[in-house]
Amino acid sequence: MYITTTIPYVNARPHLGHALELVQADVLARHHRRRGEPVRFQTGTDDNSLKNVLAAEAEGVPVRELVDRNAAAFEGLRGPLELSFDGFIRTSGHPGHRAGVERIWRAVGHDLYRRHYDGLYCVGCEQFYPAGPCPDGHGEPLQAVSEENWFFRLSRYQDALAELIRGGRLRIEPAARRNEVLAFVEAGLADISVSRSAARARGWGIPVPDDPGQVVYVWWDALANYVTALEGGDYERWWVRERRKAHLMGKGVIRFHAVYWPAMLLSAGLPLPTDILVHDYLTVDGRKISKSAGGAVDPVALVAAYGSDAVRWWLLREVPRVGDADFTEARLIARYDEDLANGLGNLVNRVVTMVCRFLDGHVPEGEPPVGVSGAVHEALEDFDFRRAAAAVWTLVEEANRYVDREQPWKQAGPARERTLGGLVAACRELAVQLEPFLPTAAARVAAAVGGDRLGPPAPLYRRLSGVAH
RNA sequence: GGGGCGGUAGCUCAGCCGGUCAGAGCAUCGGACUCAUAAUCCGUGGGUCGUGGGUUCAAGUCCCACCCGCCCUACCA
C-alpha cells in the first residue's frame, strides 16, 4: 500500500492539524505493515508556494532560509510523533521533483494552451476567484491579475472523472465527500489556469518548460510530488504496480486531489490513485487553527509535556470520522488519565504485581482470554480511526473485567497460574495490537510482560490530574 | 443562489437498508472488591432523538418545510 499525506506549505511551523493527518497516515502504514503487506508511507513539504515567499518577506529573511527552517520542523515531527514515513520529499530540494514536474507537463502538453486571463487572485488560497472577496476571509485584498497563462483542458475529463468516482475505481471516503466531489464534477468542469507569470511569483517555483516567463502553478507542482517522490524503480513499484494508493488530506483540498490530480494523470496517461481519504479539521479551544494567528498548538511542545502516546491517543481516540473536533488540553488529560493511566497502565501494573507476588515473577503458560477479531482492520478500512482505537481498547477493558471476575488473589495453585498466565498473554497480545496506534505504549507493555520472569512492577503512566483525597 | 454535512442523556459521541434504537463512554449516585496508579468491577438516575408537518400497522431511521452550526460551490436555475 502506498500511503501519502498532503505536503503542507511551510510558511510557518507545523501545528496540531498537521499532526492529525500524519498520525492517521502512520497508523495506516503500521497497520498494513503488521499485516505483512509492503508499505510505502510518503510525506514531505511544499516549498514552492508563493505564501512561503510572502512569509519570508514579512519576516525579512531570505525565502530559502525560511523554507529550510520550517521544512526541517515538519520533518522533525518524525521523532516526537513516532512517525514511520519512508520518504520525505521537499519540492524545492528533491532531485527528481523538478524533472518529474517537467515530464508530466510535457506529457500533458496536448491538453495545454495559452490564454489571456483577467482574474482576481487570492494568495492565501493560491487560486482565482471570479469576484471578491476571498470566501475564506484571508485578510489581504484579492490581486487583480491580467496576464497570459497556460490552461489545462480540465473540461475534457469531466465524464471520465465522474465515471471513475461513480464506479468506485477512485474511492473517496467518507461517502459524503464522494458525493460532494461528484456534484462538483457533474456541475461542469471549466479549464483551469496552471501557470502564472514568473514575475508575479517573485521568481519562486518551477519554470514552465520552454517558457521561462511562466512558473508552474503551485498546485500542479505540489500534486506531482506523489509520483516525483518515487524515483527509479520505486516509481514502477509503488505507482504502477501497487494495487492500493491512498492519499490522505484535509477537507479543504479535496478538489485538487479528487479532480485536478486524476485529470492530470489521465491526460498524461499515468495510473491513478485508488483512495482519497478525507479528514475534517481540528479546532483548539473552540477556535479555528490559524498558522498566522498564533492560536496554533505546537505538537512538539504537546509531546514534550504529555508524551507521544498522549498526543497520538487523543488524535486517534477523540477525533470523529466526520465533523471537526475541538482540542483542549483538558480533554487530552482526561483521555490520558482514563485510558492510559487507569485503563492500560493499571492493568499491566496489577498483572505484573500479581505475577511477582504470587508466582515470584515466573510467567506460567496461558492463553489470552480476550481477542479483537477483525474489528480493527474493518474500522481502518472505513478510515475510522476512532472506531479502530476503541476496538483495540476492548482488550484493555475485557482484561480488566477478567481480573475482577477470576479474582486471582483468591485463587490458588493451577487455577491461579492459569488466570495469571492468561493475563500475561493478554497483555502481550495487547502490545502487538497497540503498536500501530501507540508505538511507545506497545513497547512499554511488551517490556513489562516480556520474558519468562517478570521484573518488579512499575507504573506505565501516572495520572496527570490531581486525585482528590 | 445551488449542493452537502451535522443538530440524539450535563459533556463527547454510536445508531447501515424503517419495527428490543432510545444506546456507549465520561461525569453523578449506590454497591462490590482489594491484585493495582484512591485504580478496577457491577448497578442507578438522566433524553418529547433541532422545530413543524407528511408517508406507514410502525420513524432519530424515509419525504417536505423551517431554525441553528459548518463545509463545498457558484454572482449566469
From TrEMBL:
UniProt entry keywords in alphabetical sequence: Aminoacyl-tRNA synthetase, ATP-binding, Cytoplasm, Ligase, Nucleotide-binding, Protein biosynthesis
Record protein name field: Methionine--tRNA ligase
Organism in which the protein naturally occurs: Nonomuraea wenchangensis
Keyword Protein biosynthesis among record annotations: yes
Record-level GO BP terms: methionyl-tRNA aminoacylation
Molecular function GO terms recorded: ATP binding; methionine-tRNA ligase activity
Annotated ranges, domain Methionyl/Leucyl tRNA synthetase: 1-136, 146-351
SUPFAM superfamilies associated with the record: Anticodon-binding domain of a subclass of class I aminoacyl-tRNA synthetases, Nucleotidylyl transferase
Tagged with keyword Cytoplasm: yes
Protein family membership: Belongs to the class-I aminoacyl-tRNA synthetase family.
Pfam families registered for this protein in UniProt: tRNA-synt_1g (PF09334)
Top EC class, one word: ligase
Classification via Gene3D superfamilies: 2.170.220.10, HUPs, Isoleucyl-tRNA Synthetase, Domain 1
Any one annotated GO CC term: cytoplasm
Top-rank lineage group of the source organism: Bacteria
Chain's role: Is required not only for elongation of protein synthesis but also for the initiation of all mRNA translation through initiator tRNA(fMet) aminoacylation.
InterPro entries: aa-tRNA-synth_I_CS, Anticodon_Met, Met-tRNA_synth, Met-tRNA_synth_2, Methionyl/Leucyl_tRNA_Synth, MetRS_core, Rossmann-like_a/b/a_fold, tRNAsynth_Ia_anticodon-bd
EC number(s) given by UniProt: 6.1.1.10
Subcellular location: Cytoplasm
